[in-house]
Specification:
Layout (H helix, E strand, L loop, with lengths): L20 H23 L6 H24 L15 H21 L8 E5 L5 E5 H25 L9 H10 L10
Antiparallel strand pairs: 1-2
Helix pairs in contact: 1-3, 1-4, 2-3, 2-4
């Protein structure tokens, strides 16, 4: 991979490199917010119609699910207020930003050992469960990726180009300084 004439790597900003699982989750929640903002920004200019509605319904579900999971982690087992599927992307982004901020506040208070603590909750179908916090966080993050992929499909079906929202693009945006401020535990 190296050659005798190598060029120095481009100058980049310091990208957080957490060494703890907790720090890694903090970084992934920054990514989750960044990627969801990209999708909602891409949905906003689409003309009203089937694909825009499909994208906002998916985004509304994602916003609602994040609120529900946050509530479960905090010991509130109610389903929360559903988000209307025809909500404007800017309204969805505001609710998503509020929940993302609460996730970050919670993660900042935890010690890594707390990630093994079980979260006791009742699922939407009425069954009770106890799942380690680290697995709940993993679920929340993967759930977001799943629905962002569906939003990208809706954007493409509407004739637009969806934004590049894979994690590696977030990392590159961090290097360029365009991903916003990121703070993580070591």
């Amino acid at each position: 991979m190296s050659s005798s004439r190598s060029t120095p790597p481009p100058k980049s900003r310091k990208v957080p490199a957490p060494t703890s699982l907790l720090g890694h989750f903090q970084l992934l929640f920054h990514y989750d917010f960044w990627a969801t903002r990209l999708m909602l920004d891409a949905l906003a200019p689409l003309p009203p119609g089937t694909q825009r509605l499909r994208g906002t319904v998916l985004a509304a579900h994602l916003v609602w699910a994040n609120e529900v999971w946050y509530g479960r982690v905090r010991g509130h087992n109610k389903a929360g207020t559903k988000v209307p599927g025809d909500a404007e992307p800017s309204e969805l982004m505001q609710r998503y930003a509020d929940t993302n901020r609460r996730w970050h506040e919670l993660l900042a208070l935890l010690a890594t050992q707390a990630l093994a603590t079980p979260v006791h909750y009742t699922a939407t179908e009425g069954t009770t469960h106890a799942t380690p916090l680290r697995d709940v966080l993993t679920h929340v993050l993967h759930h977001g990726s799943h629905h962002r992929a569906q939003m990208a499909s809706a954007i493409r079906a509407a004739g637009a180009t969806p934004p590049a929202s894979d994690y590696i693009f977030f990392h590159r945006a961090l290097e360029e300084g365009s991903a916003g401020p990121v703070q993580v535990a070591e």
